[in-house]
Design brief:
Aminopeptidase; 28% strand; alpha+beta; single chain; 238 residues; 3-stranded antiparallel β-sheet
């Protein structure tokens, strides 16, 4: 069972920083003092824990920033340590974040994800019911953590609706028809980056061209198929 708690005290901010290091590697991806500053500015921070062998273990965390964009909460990072992936921790963190946003009267929660990572696309669009807002080329520039090093940081920006709902949303798989575009994802880009960097880079550029062309021609992301492909639908004008 996963328990999620709000981070308030400095010692828990330091623990969250350690969890983020476990996920992304390197020096502190987000130092404890920055986490504390975000909390003091009214932002959101949380830690997820599980009991293993009778001992509490921190297995994930999330950090979100409050902006001035029409009551939106921007989720900067949500991560789960490798040993706890696929154990429900990510869902628990995002639903806790949604409940906190609801209690604090936010309208939506935004965040970004790498559209090449099929499992993340499924999690964000199907499990969480987020809607794609836009596509951004090399959103963060070069990042030298263990996950992103050597790759372009192309991202989809998504939003999860909060205002007007009583329960956290979820999505459903999409079936494409003849009028829609399909943008594919590789089965496991994370492994491919480690075994065939050249192919991984080629897939990045191919997907970038497809997304930028689709958005430039008034298509938007309708959803995700069971095979892990994005379905793009022509937006109606007027």
């Amino acid at each position: 069972m996963t328990e999620v708690e709000i981070v308030i005290k400095p010692e828990k901010a330091h623990q969250l920083a350690k969890v983020l290091v476990s996920v992304w590697g390197g020096a502190d991806p987000i130092p404890p003092d920055v986490i504390i500053a975000i909390i003091q500015a009214g932002g959101y921070a949380s830690l997820a824990s599980q009991i293993a062998n009778g001992k509490k273990q921190f297995v994930g965390g999330s950090l979100a920033i409050v902006g001035s964009h029409q009551g939106k909460l921007h989720s900067h990072v949500t991560g789960v340590i490798p040993s706890a992936i696929n154990s429900g921790v990510g869902r628990a963190l995002k639903d806790h974040q949604w409940s906190w946003a609801k209690e604090n009267e936010f309208s939506t929660i935004s965040w970004t994800f790498d559209p090449l990572v099929r499992r993340n696309a499924y999690f964000n669009l199907i499990v969480l019911g987020a809607n794609v807002v836009k596509y951004c080329q090399n959103y963060y520039g070069e990042i030298n953590d263990l996950i992103n090093a050597g790759d372009q940081t192309d991202r989809l920006v998504v939003e999860r609706q909060v205002k007007g709902l009583t329960v956290a949303p979820s999505g459903s798989l999409c079936v494409a028809n003849g009028d829609e575009l399909i943008i594919q994802t590789p089965p496991d880009i994370v492994s491919l980056r480690n075994t065939d960097r050249e192919t991984a880079n080629r897939l990045r550029l191919e997907q970038r061209i497809s997304f930028e062309s689709a958005f430039a021609n008034s298509f938007s992301v309708q959803g995700l198929t069971g095979e892990g492909s994005f379905v793009m639908t022509k937006r109606k004008v007027g």
